[in-house]
Amino acid sequence: MQEHSPADWQHDHAFGQQHRKPGERRTIVVIVLTAVTMAVEIAVGILTGSMALLADGLHMGSHTVALGLATFAYIYARRHAHDERFAFGTGKVNALAGFTGAILLLGFAILMAFESAKRFIEPIPIVFDTAIAVAVIGLLVNGLSVIILGLRHDSHDDHNHHHGHAHHDHNLRSAYLHVLADALTSLLAIVALLSGKYLGAVWLDPAMGIVGAILVANWSRGLLKQTSHVLLDRQGPDHIRTAIASALESQSDVKVTDLHLWSIAPGIWAAEISLVTSNPQPVAFYKLCIPPDIGLQHLTLEVNPRTAQVSDRGTNDHEDPENSGALGS
Q1: Terminus of the chain with fewer CB atoms < 10 Å: N or C?
Q2: Cβ neighbours of 246 (radius 10 Å)
């Protein structure tokens, strides 16, 4: 039997984070578009007195910051991918940026609601024609940004999607939600301004600001939930855990007694698994039993002999250390 050196069992922990993500380039393009439109909308919103347009400009300002944060996260994760201080690589920088972006999204939704409510109490005259023209421009820019960020990620994403395991780039999703929220507020601003000009329903201007704030806050809540699950190492999806356990237990006399699965990067999982069997095999044997398309990149596996002291619940008061093993993959 060939003898392996310790180096044969070592592996890289970058997990692909050292490569430039397609979302990084697209986010930079959208930052430029958003920043320019933001400056125009805020200036014209102040000059025309449109709360809906000003709210849209302020919203785009928040998104310029959030998009800048997303770009920073991409660059930081890439440049520190091989930094050994990160036990499982820099994949969670993606989720952290998405979580922070969601908080910014929620904060500006609250600001939109506050400013809109204030305009109910203290309405100001609106120069409708100019405000409508700029709002239409903002909608076009936001729509283009949504298309740019909404493109299919890359061939790796398509491969994962094909196998039913979507590549969840929370950083890109945060950026996408920010520009989608911008498109929504631009659309609401146009509706409000047209209603105010032709129907005299000036009250719709601040009302649309509140409606937009509610919708944006709901998107923020969803992103906060997704990213916090990653940051807190919540158990991975049931269908992946079931697939792993079923693959291992398809072997004769194998019982999985403990299985922990968590995300370490978008579409990449780590796992710690304990199993018991009457006929222990080398840990490499059990590793090969797990389907390769799951996205499991780091595996620690413990194999315990089924003795009189070992139950299917995994209790083992008299474990024989010679028959236990761990494998990192």
Answers
A1: N
A2: 12
Spatial neighbors of 194 by CB under 8 A, at least 6 apart, are 132
Helix axis angle for 204-231 and 51-79, nearest 10°, is: 20
**DSSP 8-class letter at 311:** -
With tokens 């660059």, the residue in question is 75
Question: Parallel, antiparallel, or unpaired for β 296-305 and 254-265?
Answer: unpaired
Instruction: For the beta carbon of residue 219, count every other beta carbon within 10 angstroms.
Output: 21
CATH class of 238-323: alpha beta
Query: Predicted confidence band at 22 (pLDDT cuts at 50, 70, 90)?
Result: low
Q: What is the pLDDT of residue 3?
A: 52
Neighbours of 12 (CB within 10 A): 11
Sequence ranges of the domains in the chain: 8-231, 238-323
Mean of all residue pLDDT scores within the chain: 75
Angle at CA of residue 217, ends 215 and 220, nearest 5°: 115
CA atoms in the 13 A half-sphere facing the CB of 18 = 8
Most trustworthy range by pLDDT among 8-12, 59-63, 162-166: 59-63
Q: Is 264 helix (H, G, I), strand (E, B) or coil?
A: strand
Coil, strand or helix at 129: helix
Which position has the token pair 């049931």?
Answer: 238
Give the integer Cα–Cα distance in Å for 313 and 119: 63
> Over 60: is that where the pLDDT of 156 sits?
no
In this structure, how many other beta carbons lie within 10 angstroms of the beta carbon of residue 75?
A: 15
Q: What is the pTM of this model?
A: 0.65
Instruction: Report pLDDT digits (tens) over 290-321.
Output: 888 887 878 888 999 987 454 444 444 333 43
Task: Choose which CATH entry (1.10.760.10, 1.20.1510.10, 3.10.310.50, 1.20.1070.10) describes domain 8-231.
Answer: 1.20.1510.10
CA gap 57, 62 in Å, rounded? 9
